Amino acid sequence: MARFPEGTLGRIKAVLRDGENQSDFMREAVELELRRREGPPVGGPDRS
User: Among 3, 15, 24, 33, which is disulfide-ready with 20 (CB 3.0 to 4.6 Å)?
Assistant: First the structure.
């Protein structure tokens, strides 16, 4: 597992939904970030 700055896991625990655990949260966060990065390129000097 990745190391997080101190306090990050506490922040995650504070925002978990009912029935959700830290692993659920992290899986969803990673999936959302992958979709964002894999999505269609946006304009910029080194983007198509």
Answer: 24
Helices 22-38 and 8-15: crossing angle, nearest 10°?
A: 100
Q: How many CB atoms lie within 10 A of CB 7?
A: 8
Q: Single out the residue of 24, 45, 29 nearest to residue 37, CA to CA.
A: 29
Identify the DSSP state of 46. Answer: T
12-45 residue pLDDT tens: 999 999 999 999 999 999 999 999 999 887 676 6
Nearest to 29 by CA among 21, 5, 10: 21
What are 10's two structure tokens? 């506490």
